[in-house]
Every structure is written in structure tokens, then in C-alpha cells.
């Protein structure tokens, strides 16, 4: 297998990510490629200290970083891992094992759990609904880890220069071609404050709009998911009225992000949520899932 990590100013979290990854059975340092890009910190040095392959690009941009790493990586399955995701023990082998099953999926992702323990109450309320949306049970995005078979990676060429790389990968596969591994859980840190959350959602909306425009213009081949604006009510709150308390902050935050997203200028910057990287706990090892 080959593991690709695109990293932009990830010094505070990359060490823990690599240590957990290299402790996985079957993962060797030579099979891990860290593609640092536009970094102003010790991201490349942190990776080099652990013996993995390092690409140090001056130009910022995740798509360019992923493509540069793909040019170096040789083996399959191809694992794309975010620099701030700590992989639990044994997770990689369990994910890769799905390619040996009769169904032969092209893409495998873990379950995700959003950690809101350090977040403000409006952020907790937002994710009480967001985590239960059906789109996050079937989509490849929002997990920080995607595994593709060789046939799956052959489905598309270079990553296009756009923000939503995981949404682009998601658009290349039907639901029958992907699997969510129920036996692997990845923990994703929630933003700490409402402002942090809205900033993150604005970035997501910019990426979605950018991809829709590129698909409409024929610049990329992608099946773009249609937005379901009422799924939060129909699929989450009505079946579980106990979540009605969360509806007000959820709707407010969603509308605010949509409003700001329409005003935002186009761009390819990552718009990282530094609140989950610059806190004292950002580099702490998570308990095994």
C-alpha cells in the first residue's frame, strides 16, 4: 500500500499522525509520502525525522501536493490521509481487508465520530444534527481518510485544482462502489467556537460551488451530489424530536455560512481551522477506537 498525506503548516499535529500510522501492521516508512506545500513551519522536518518520503513544495495548494505525491507513490491500495487524523490501532489493515471481499469495492472509508468535547454549546448542537445526516453515512468526504483500490484510483486522473478534493473523489463513485467500514472509527475534531465552525463551513461551500461550476463548464467529469436542504428536519429531527433543541443553532449556523459563502471570493487556500491544531491538546494521542 501507499499512504499520501498532503500537509500545509501541520507541525503541531503531523508527528502524532505519523507515529500512529507507522505503528500500523503493514505500514512501512518507505510507503508513506508526506507532501508538504507552502509551509512556514517544521512540517517537512517532522516528517523527515520519522523516515518517510518527503516532498517539500514551495507552492501552496492541496491538489498540487496530492498530485506530486501520487507521482512518487508506487503501490496500492492508495490511502489518502489528512495530516491531523490519528488512525486507531489496526485500522489500516481492517480497511484494506475490504478489498478482498466478494463485493470488491473501489473505495473504502471509516466511520466518523465528531469530537465536540472542547466545543461551545452551539457547535455541539450543530453536530448533534450534522452527524446524523444520511449524506455522511454514504459519502467519502468529511472523514479525513479515503482508501482507493488500483481500479478505484484509475477512475480519475490528476486531482483538479479545487478546494473540495474529497468531494471530487466522492463524485467519481456510485454508492455500490464504496464501503463504509463499520469496524473502524475515525475521530474528527469539531471547531471550538461558532466563528471557527462558520469559517469551516464557508470553505466547504466555496469548494462545493467551485466543483459544481467546474462540472457545469465541462472542466471536470463529476457527478455532483444535489443539496438536500430539508434533510436535517425530515431525516433527523422529525424521527427524533429530542433533537429539536439543536435545530435553532443548526439552522442559524447553516444560514450564516451560506450567506457568507455566497459573498466569499474564489480561491484555493485551505482555510484551515487552526483552533483544532494550535491548542495544547492538539498533539495529544487519542484513545484507541
UniProtKB/TrEMBL annotation:
The keyword DNA-binding belongs to this UniProt entry's keyword annotation: no
Q: Main subcellular localization, coarse class?
A: membrane
Pfam families (UniProt xref): Glycos_transf_2
GO molecular function terms listed in the Swiss-Prot or TrEMBL record = glycosyltransferase activity
Q: Keyword Membrane on this protein? A: yes
**Which keywords, in A-to-Z order, does the entry hold?**
Cell membrane, Glycosyltransferase, Membrane, Transferase
Q: In which pathway does it act?
A: Carotenoid biosynthesis; staphyloxanthin biosynthesis; staphyloxanthin from farnesyl diphosphate: step 4/5
Matching InterPro entries: Glyco_trans_2-like, Nucleotide-diphossugar_trans
Source domain of life:
Bacteria
Q: Where in the cell is it found?
A: Cell membrane
The Glycosyltransferase 2-like domain, residue ranges: 2-123
Its GO CC terms are: plasma membrane
Please list where the region (Disordered) is annotated. Answer: 264-289
Its biological purpose is as follows:
Catalyzes the glycosylation of 4,4'-diaponeurosporenoate, i.e. the esterification of glucose at the C1'' position with the carboxyl group of 4,4'-diaponeurosporenic acid, to form glycosyl-4,4'-diaponeurosporenoate. This is a step in the biosynthesis of staphyloxanthin, an orange pigment present in most staphylococci strains.
Q: What family is reported?
A: Belongs to the glycosyltransferase 2 family. CrtQ subfamily.
Q: Which PANTHER family match?
A: GLYCOSYLTRANSFERASE, GLYCOSYLTRANSFERASE 2-LIKE DOMAIN-CONTAINING PROTEIN
* Protein's name in the database: 4,4'-diaponeurosporenoate glycosyltransferase
The top of its lineage is: Bacteria, Bacillati, Actinomycetota, Actinomycetes, Micrococcales
